[in-house]
Structures are given as C-alpha cells and as structure tokens.
Amino acid sequence: MLNIANPTNFLKLASWLVPVFAVLTAVLLGVGLYLSFLAPADYQQGETVKIMYLHVPAAWLSMFIYGVMCSAALGTLVWRHPLADAAQKAAAPLGAGFTFICLATGSLWGKPMWGTWWVWDARLTSVLVLFLIYLGLIALWQAIEDPGRAARAAAVLTLVGAVNIPIIKFSVDWWNTLHQPASVFRLGGPTIAASLLWPLLVMALAFTFLFLTLHLMAIRNEIYRRRLRRLSILAASAGETDLSNTMMEPAR
Amino acid sequence: MTDPNLDFIIAAYVLGFIVVTAMVALILYDGISLKRALAKVSARGDSGTDS
C-alpha cells in the first residue's frame, strides 16, 4: 500500500488526484448550477431561495473543514503524523473563505427575507465565532516562526475551538433563533421538497470536491514550502561553515 | 427571471464566484512561486557543488 505519510508519495498521489478532483468539481458545479437555476421558486421565499444553493453548501463546508482540521490536530498531537500539520495549516484559509461565503450570502438572503442584514442570534453569532477562530489560526501560524511549535499551538487551539461546532449545529434547537431549524440533516429526514433538495445536494457535493481539490493543492504547496525552508537553512549553514573554516574559530 | 430580489441573488453569486476564484488563484500563484524558488535554490546548490 502507498504510504502517504511520506511527502514524496503524497506528492505522487496528489499529482493524479488533483486533476481528477478538479474535473469532478467542474462537472458537479456545472450540473449543480444548472439544476439550481431550473429549480422552482419557493412558495414563501420566491426566487431568493436560489441563494440557499450557495449558502447551505458553504455553511456545511465551514463545519466540515473544521472537522478535517480537528482530525489533523489529533494527528499532530497524538500520532505526530508528518503531514498532519501541513493538512491543518492548508485547511484554515479555505475554512475562512467558505465561512465568509456562508456569512455574506446569509446576509444577502437575510435582508430581503428578514428585513435585516444581521441579527445577533445564536446560529449567526456562533458561525461568526467560527470565522474568527479560522482567522486566529491563520494569524497563529504566521506569528510563530518555528513550524513545529506553530503546529502544536495551532493544534491545541483547533481542539479547544471544536467546542463551537456542536454549538453551531444545535444552536437552533437550544435557543430561540431567527435562523430556521435544520431542514436537511435531521433525524426525521429532510423537510425540503425533492425539487429543491436535489440541486442543494449536488451543489454540496460540488463544494466538497472543490475543497478537496484546493486542500490537496495547498498541502502540496506546504510540502514545497518546507523543502524550500530546509534547503535555505542547509545553504545558509553551508555558508557559515565556509566562513568559520576560513576566518575564525566558532564560538563555544 | 423577474424577481424583486434579483439584485440580492446576483450579488450572492458574484460574491461566491469572487471568493472561490480568489482562493484558487492564490493557491495556484503560491504553488508557482514556490516551485520557482525551489528550482532557483536547487540550481544554486548544483552550481555550488560544481565549482
């Protein structure tokens, strides 16, 4: 079996997975958008329901990506998997991007439907907190120069922040919110009409493949960045050795 | 499609398109510049061992 913990093996795997996932993403996005625009108008929301085909997949991904980051954080702290911290670092900006899409499209839906761009209800506020956690993690990676220390600190913060995920999911059940309760992933089955549900599921799948494609590409970039860092350190230390041999005794 | 909220629908899709395109472009740009820098460092290493 191919050991993908080895960065070279991972690069080989990514070199053929990225084009396959990219084509799947393009096809699914094309089909999803086509179905979305053919879908009937909602009896209450009218055509504004079309914003949901963007908002719901982005919301689903914002939590899914955090789940991926939590797994990677465990991989870093418990198993010290060599690619776990690269996967975690690569996922954070993507998580921030999809959470931003979720918040912004939700706001663009809220203005005509609720009459306001924003309310401080539990669902919206907890998703905003998720967005801030993503930004905090990106800042943490930038602030600590040593990649090993940055990875461990980010892993701890990611696992602490995981408490927000069930809060997001169940906020609509635990508190009285303006945001509607779950209508797709619920125990009694979806409450949406099939004609509106299918485009939503195809778009959710398209967004998931979009994330997988971008995540693989970003992990690959992270491996290149580490190689570059290692080569630069080697080049710098080789330069120092030359200097110490020719000019002076090394300090003790 | 004639909907009183058409502006909001278009704005949502344009915004989604811009954010996704920006993410794709940034990752592609990052990859290209890293590959270029790696090639430069490797070439410097090769010329260093040759000399």
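The CA atoms of residues 41 and 47 of chain B lie 10 Å apart.
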